[in-house]
Amino acid sequence: IAGITQAPTSQILAAGRRMTLRCTQDMRHNAMYWYRQDLGLGLRLIHYSNTAGTTGKGEVPDGYSVSRANTDDFPLTLASAVPSQTSVYFCASSELDNNEQFFGPGTRLTVL
Amino acid sequence: AQSVTQLDSQVPVFEEAPVELRCNYSSSVSVYLFWYVQYPNQGLQLLLKYLSGSTLVESINGFEAEFNKSQTSFHLRKPSVHISDTAEYFCAAPLGNTGRRALTFGSGTRLQVQP
Fold first, then answer.
1. What does pLDDT average to in each consecutive run of 10 residues of chain B (115 residues)?
2. Going from the N-terminus, what domains does chain A have, and what CATH number goes with each?
3. Alpha helix (H) ranges present in chain A?
4. A36 and A87 in contact (C-beta within 8 Å)?
5. How far apart are alpha carbons A95 and A75 in whole angstroms?
6. B 1-60: CB under 8 A from A
7. Which residues are A111's β-sheet partners?
8. Domains (ranges, CATH) in chain B?
């Protein structure tokens, strides 16, 4: 693994279903983030984690949850998907006290 | 908390012409600013950043941006663009109450370089 990986690459999901987007980094970065990208809105922060064992809410956290059991993994869960959660989701990471973020390739999620 | 505004959603330009992508920020605290580039169907990559020091920062592929405190701007420029510069460009700044690590992004500017 080199950098950040995300899985799946894309997914079509029925409304009401539960879904977990996976994110793994091998750079030993302390901080990790989840963003969603929507046309005309740029990227918006969903949740973040400054270090393993801690998480925080971003700009648009409703309907999403995260966990950070270890340094490398930061899964994002949609407990009951809704069509407004159709988006491209990006995971990112950064070193402590360094704002330069490294992004994964993204997951394209469609909720029908 | 900081916020950023990108004034142009699309910028069409001919190859070898100069280009400027505009970004304005609002902040009452120390400023850190970034430009990211997203090529089609890819994630974002850091293009350049301003943390402190010289107000003019450059990237390895010919882009530059100037931090202008009086105009609260961080415009991205390139004197001569190539077809390969076609991408979406995002200006970003620290979000504020997240330990100054998470970023807030502008809405993006799609640069379309035409032959």
1. 85 96 79 90 90 85 92 94 96 74 88 95
2. 4-111 (2.60.40.10)
3. none
4. yes
5. 18
6. 6, 9, 32, 34, 36, 42-46, 49, 51
7. A13
8. 3-91+99-114 (2.60.40.10)
